[in-house]
Amino acid sequence: MKTKFINIFLLVVGLMLGACSDNLNTEPTTSTTSEVVFRDVTSAQTAMNGIYRYMYTAGWSVNWSAENCGLSGILLTADLMGEDHLMADPGQGWFWYDYCLDVQMDYTHTSGHPYAFWNFFYTSICNINYILATENTLPGDPAEVKKLMAQAYAMRAMCYHYLIQIYQQTYVGNEDAAGVPIYTEPTTKETIGKPRGTIKDTYLQINADINKAITLFEEVGIESHEHASHIDYYVANGFKARICMTQNLYADAEQAATEALKAPYARVATVNEMKGMNNITMPNVLWGMEVIAEQGSGFEGFFSHMDADAEGLYASSAQKCIDASLYSRIPQSDERKGWFRGKLEKDGEGSNFSYCQLKFKMANYSNRIGDIIYMRYEEMLLIKAEAQCMQDKYSDARLTLTELLEQRDANYAEMLNNFTDSKNYNSDTNGRIVSLMDGILLQRRIELWGEVGRLFDLKRLGLGYNRDYEGSNQTTALATDPGDLRFVLPLPQSEIDGNVNISDEDNNPLY
Amino acid sequence: MRSSAKTLVVSFVGMKQQELPVKSSLKIVLEVDNQMLDEVMVVAYGTTKKESFTGSAEVVKADKIASRPIANMSKAIEGQVAGAQVTSGSGQPGSGASIMIRGYGSINATANPLYVVDGVPYDGNISAINPNDIESITILKDASAGALYGSRGANGVVMVTTKKGKNGKTSVELKANWGIASRAIPRYDTMDEKGFLETIFWNFRNKQFANGMPAKEAGLYALQRIGNPNVGVLGINEEFNPYNYAIADLIDPVTGQVRSDATLKYHEDWLDEATASNPLRQEYQISVTNGNDKTKSMYSLGYLSEDGLLKTTNFKRFSGRANIDTEITDWFKGGINVNYSRNESNTSYENNSYTSNVWYSAQLMAPIYPIYQKNSDGSNVLDKNGTPVFDYSANRPSGANANWNMIATLYDDKRSSTSDNLSGRTYITLGDMDKGILEGLKFTTTFGFDLINSSSMTYYNPYNGNSVGVNGSLEKATGRTFSYTLNEILSYNRTFNQHHIDALVGHEFYQYQYEYLGAYKTGFPFGDLFELDAAINTLEASSYKNEYAIQSVFSRFNYDYADKYYLSLSYRTDGSSRFYKDNRWGNFWSVGANWRLSQEAFMEDLDWVNNMSVKASYGVQGNDAVGSLYAWQRLYGFNHNANYGGTTISSLENKELKWEKNGNLNIGLEFKLFDRVDASIEWYNRKTTDMLMAYPMATSTGFDSYYANVGSMRNRGWDISLGIDVLKARDFNWKMTLIGSTVKNKVLKLADKPEIISGSYIIKEGETLNSFYTATAAGVDPLTGLQLYEVWDLDKNGERTYYKTTSGSKATACKSIQGSRIPNLYGSIGNDFKYKGFDLSLMFTYSIGGKILDSVYNTLMYSNYIGQARHQHLERAWKNPGDITDIERINIDKTHITTDNDLINASYFALKNVTFGYTLPSKWLKKIQFESIRLTATADNLFMLTHLKGLNPQYNFSGGTNFGYVPTRTVSFGIDVKF
Questions:
Q1: Global pTM?
Q2: Which residues contact B378 (CB under 8 A, 6 or more apart)?
């Protein structure tokens, strides 16, 4: 018996040890490592494309991700915080409180816009910094490396530029006010939160980054991008033009806009060519995101919020409308009048609603997608015209504006003739259009309605507004002063909780 | 047997020891020892006698589990064990409850206990275990009891032991149970048509009145707004006015009252319409046990079908089990337990604010909106078959789900899941001989596995609701879980005179794999197609695999002397794949001692002391269950840009990440006096160190946090159980069980900054975890009807000057800690009565103290949407200057600031279970060859008293609520036949 016992015992123990695997090294199957990503410049391109994807990815907050559809959600918020763009109805509340200028108190949690916007830009910056950290070491074609780095620098400039516009008042006159924390090194677990610094510090970084990007593009020889979503020399100059405008650097802005307008692939589009504003192949696109079916955000996407005819989606119950006063200023002869519904006798379903916007339409209802345009030729013309006007170059400005208007309004010449040559503009945004500058700014409000964030223009131009005028169609009738406290979002609580260099006292004042 | 032997001592766990004279043939009938049976329990890697146990563990026995009409055994724990807090769980058939043992063990890592089934950690669905197959559930609460599961036992262990075959005659048991369900918690008191319209009136009227318009004029303006089609309250042409008067005539512009002679044209309730009346629950079970000296077996087959309280929801389970133990020779034993269960569920959304979640959308539907289209006289519009036509009205306001009918989509959409669950536990034991040089030495190897194949589907119909814009959508997913545990244990168990030694050493390997495959398509040519092939556009297709493994070596040494002194030592080391190789191994250990005072000479004279022991243990257990299986690694996820491959960083690297540790001290006193009173009194102190936490980073670094071992936290409290035989007469017995527990939680240390704030919650050093952190209300201004808040300004010395304000932003900047959900005392009161063949048991549960932020109630009170239902408490809202009230004037344009006023006392008292049984006299049954027949009537979740009607105080452990499937009350009847 003993032998049998020992035999069986040995057999069992042998089997156990044989069957015993000791592999405790596990790896996820749907991720990769930074070593693989930064193996060479070709694979590192994926890191840049990941950041471009962010621009139209939803979900930057813990809840309420539907109203955080990447950069488009941020620009929409900034537009609704102005006076030209309104919501007909609260719907389920998405963007409604932004429109009511009542989201500051959301800073305490991670569901609202104060957190989501901050998170969006800083997550992008963090990814950019990992790319830039390989600038001198990344294997591969040096020209390709430079092009990649140029895109990363330009993107970082753009991110800091939006951050400072959202989380602070405008640059001019507030140079020494608190800025936003600046990071240029890759984040590790040892990374300590940076202090806010000043607005001036922030703009130093922004200017350095965008100039570096343009220099790098020039060094490898100016080329057009391979895909509309990729930043090239012209797009980088477009960013620079915007950046210079917020610092009132008009000559630089004019010069940068002029460079951007040299893009061989872009020209002014006709209103007909822009139908739906949802296609990166439009002739006026400088920078835009191609959204394919698998990468759409469905009901969380930009067009769900805009297109009132997308059944069951948000805009169908909360129409995005143009302000009646602005609408009334679009001449009948202007084709852009068709971007909006106008006053209806009787409001019906979907976009059959007074002043409902028709400019942004979904490209494909069954996939709920449409391309998202972030920079187009006409914006550059408008920046150039404004910058020229600001430098008293009135006839140049008129010429620049003409390039746009001849594609918009048959009677443009007469309109231009009525403007006086002046860079002064009316402080009442519902006031009379007298000067050339009044005209340029009005054209900007009409042409770029819903696209660039009216709030940012209000801030840099030092304007407030009154939504409560005679005949207003606004659903929240409020008035703001220039530099209104509500124009600035507070830093999110999560920043204060995690940053040893920023305390409650460093946060922006609440209204 | 030696030929000179004269006496045979027969003993078996749970049976009375007998001494019998040796004869050539002998028939032995084992007698059940009721007193003993209480004392034996299953513990980590073996069994033990309760009075010898040095740790803290409690047993829930089969009868307490089987008497509950539940599909998921986690719902049977409530009220049975001191120190275990249990949530109500959802009312969805088949769903379980969450269990938390002795407080929050962790902040970001799991606080769930480890489930062990028949000796092996269990990864299957809890609902795949048929509660009728369970012999006992042991809850291990302290380190001495649980340290052998050291790796994952830090939050306690729930050990489930299934029934085994018994030596003796074959026994067949048939059980059947039928029951019906209803709401266990009543609905909130929401306003009827009259109250709702009046509330809307006050909303519009208040705004104008506050702007200086005279009262009557403001009232007339309000009536005009209500009727305005652009506002949409009443749709177009007052189509949703349920009264026989136009709105201008219906409400008095001064008093705001609906006129008394107004009558309703129709009255419908959306949630009632979604609720099934008397949904049926039926359960059938057959089990066979038999056995002889060599082989013992148990087989069972079960079928359960539970229809949900929410129409279209249900749960079905087909289960079968075979437990077989065989003694091949006296030194070679083996056994296998196999369980198969097929679970099928039809579910609906809950706990979110989707329109498809009827617990949200139907509950919040204002009472004036009809479910079915109405003719002008209020009667239903009928289709050509005479059935009422659902109203999908586009004219309802945004808060009332325009273009949608949740009752219709409840039928037309589908959400279901199916799982096949196979679990096996096999073992081989060598040795364990009762003589020779190897006496007491035993080698056991156990292999246990859980295999779960599950599939799920979410379908939205193409005609209305969620996916109408894309012509319907379908998401299908399959998941495959396979986990196994393999261990080898060498043990030695000998008694030398008064000394008893029980030692073991073992090795264990655990591996878990999960594979997922899923796809999402849209665009159906027709409705009622539930396969991906039928849809046109592929919007998503994904797959992934997860892996996790633990390798362990462990040992235990138990020693006792003369049944008086017991000592227990254990040590275990685990390597987890969740951590980097240099920091993967954690060491866990425990020391425990028990002194049975009652065995000492000095207590021998005290006849009234049946048993008394004091015990103490301390040990360290581990927890590695932090958010991700790959928490230490720096990873890039995929984020493609159109046709360009894209990647973005998803986590930071932390090679130093290691096990969270739980130092657990337990001191207990146990006694039994006068043969009547049983008591267990324990004090524990549980300190979590190296806490696995999302270490807060500045969001501007691109990460809110990374996983790190930081901080520490403490839970301490008392667990007291008292069993009293109140009456012990010949025919009448009354046993009462009182359970009470306390837990005090304190966060001792956090990261760089001593607090983490999230909305209305705060985690702060020196405070209770997840304390409420809100503004402070200071009444309603009688003049304006605005909410006042208690706020402060700081002077230059940092001193606070308090004052009152109506400024919401100031109030938000002046938040204070306002308590937490954790109760002061919670437990249960059980009563078991027996009279002849009748038995009655009543179990009450209670919880005293703690607060809840009831977001369902808050939505009913302060939601900003026109068209949503309103709570009757708004009748108290401020209306006119001079009104003294605690609810500010109705103004749905204003965002409500959460204050201490919104925190509701979480105390409750509930009658959890009543079971009435009758066992037929055996003399009747003998004639018909039956062993026993028992009839039962049970009412589960009979009533609950709370501070707010409608509130579910057991929604979760952190003190929030959501729009969830209401827990159900079940009234059932059963029959149990043995022959």
A1: 0.87
A2: B242, B264, B265, B266
